[in-house]
Amino acid sequence: MCDKYYMNLALIQAKKALKKNEVPVGAIVVDEKGNIIGKGYNKKEKHKSVCEHAEIIAITKASKKIKSWRLNNCSIYTTLEPCPMCASAIEQSRIKKVYYGTSRKDENNKKIINNILKNIDIQENIYVEECAKLLSDFFKNRR
Amino acid sequence: MCDKYYMNLALIQAKKALKKNEVPVGAIVVDEKGNIIGKGYNKKEKHKSVCEHAEIIAITKASKKIKSWRLNNCSIYTTLEPCPMCASAIEQSRIKKVYYGTSRKDENNKKIINNILKNIDIQENIYVEECAKLLSDFFKNRR
What we know:
Chain A has 143 residues and is of the alpha/beta class. Chain A contains six helices and five strands. In chain A, 48% of the residues lie in helices and 18% in strands. Chain A has a five-stranded mixed β-sheet. The termini of chain A are far apart. The interface between A and B is medium-sized, with 28 and 29 residues.
């Protein structure tokens, strides 16, 4: 399976968030054989919790599925550059590779997460236009 | 109430983790009136999830209690210097002040969390000996 295939699934998750009027971010955790073991989309407003980011939900589900917090050799696909909370959860769960769609505008975020993820492969800009458009349309409509 | 009062409650939480053979870390969220609105202790092994840190649990409970992810003017007391995941959850939930017991040995952790929490008051070394001893005894017994 190619990276775009999984990022497209993360985009489908992000669109679920959009439908529920949440900031549209989606994430997918994939094991070393290519099986999807965790999916999630942002539910911050629904659950009134900053911890309900797409990546945290996908990681929690993946850990539950394989009955371990160690997600060795797994990859995560997320439509938006992770925040430090999610980057740290990725690093602590020993995920091997991070793929993300669009970057955040905050340069300090990139500096922080690059430090947190310094021993982890990062591939950015997959389906960058689709991921970015979903977010910009959402914020345009909120104004 | 003084800071030691709340840190002692966080220590009581940490001891609950110890009893369940989890790394002994505890946390308490306090609102601006001094009410305890969230408590938590590390449950990483029980729930097999890196997201089950004491601070995340305390923040999630506090948000549920006040029905908002905005914990404006609240403080958090945690027995151990937060990891970047918890520091970012603290920052995103708009907590005003962080009190912690003992520091981590990893200097890079402090650098990262000081960047994440750069606009938030931090008070360290409250009951530092008690918080540190709980952790060092735990790791000594595991060897």
